[in-house]
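A quick aside before the break. I want you to see a complete sequence-to-structure record at least once, exactly as it would be stored in a machine-readable document. Don't worry about memorizing anything.
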Amino acid sequence: MRILIVGAGGREHALAWKCAASAHVDEVIVAPGNAGTALEARVRNADVAAMDIPGLVALARAERIDLTIIGPEAPLVAGVVDAFAAAGLKCFGPRAAAAQLEGSKAFSKQFLERHRIPTARHRCFTRATFDARYVKEHRTPIVVKADGLAAGKGVIIAASADEALAAAAAMFGGEFGTAGNEIVIEEFLPGEEASFIVMADGEHALALASSQDHKRRDDGDRGPNTGGMGAYSPAPLVSAAVHARIMREVIEPALRGLAAQGMPYCGFLYAGLMIAPDGTPNVVEFNCRLGDPEAQPLLMRMQSDLTLLCAAALAGRLHDAEVKWDPRAALGVVMAAAGYPGSVRSGDAIDGLDAAALLPGKVFHGATRVDADEKRIVTSGGRVLCAVGMGESVRAAQSQAYALVRQIRWQGAQYRRDIGHLAVARENTAAR
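That is the input. The structure line, written in tokens, reads:
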């Protein structure tokens, strides 16, 4: 098989690495890829942007691609799968209509209400319909979300009504471009977050291993929201009973509802959940692709052939498939550029990658490129690398991941020092 991976981040590096390990795969092409994908065996980059949908179709035809896997959300929302289907090309991901689950938080909230899937109470507003009294009448903290795609940054957890009103004004004022033309204001849910990702074939769902990410930039889950500063798998929070509830109360009704609305869902479906103290899974968000950074530890643990699972999904045969996992835990630490999630500087030389490569674990590249003049790998955006360790416990995986991180440096590099802290605390309690 010849595989095309669309995207340029850490998730796409992990997808390319995983697909290249398949005995059924001859070559993996990544469009556009990064410095890490360029270094992988049986992988090469193609200079086609993830949003250049005609260019991607032409690339798949020219390279005789058997299967394309879409990494990021923006091309899915823009209809890349529809374009591939029209060209008779196999592409794993939801069509544009179903991808609205991520592309519009207002659409997603209305969908959740319609199909009685548990979520936070909320209201949607445009600038013309915004009612400040709604904010002032609700207890804080309160959550303000930009409706459209904002690279995981369009969510503000406001500690006061004034902070919520300022966030709404900033979104309406263009802080996130057109993504803030409509906003969602919702209650803050107590509990603990979990990432629950399945593969879907339009009717059936195959659950992947549980995971948990860390959205806040700073230690102790403080600071601004980001696209994700680290993740680990499995998530001890998701017990067998909680897993069953998520499938029964969230995933299965979502797939039935989408099919009933004429938009059967095929692809990765990611439910970002807040698990209440009583085990109730409330949907915080739906994403229409693998998470980043959840993909990195998940794919490190996956022992099954991802390409065969994707093929089974496209054939509507996921009910016959199973996925096997390494029983060890995996944990990834994101190393970001200074200033992230705001304005960041690019072009800083990254040192220590060769030393890290000699240690156990794996460093996946995100925002990196090769400086042709200096012949060095340099930063090219916000989330630069994700260092993944594995171990018999989350604590052991955490130790291995941070050993990798300590080898790597560039000017202004920042990362959290407590990824996995909730799981480690659980392990410590269980050991007493």
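Two observations worth writing down. Residues 205 and 251 are 8 Å apart (CA to CA). The domain at 190-320 is CATH 3.30.470.20 (D-amino Acid Aminotransferase; Chain A, domain 1). We'll return to this after the break.
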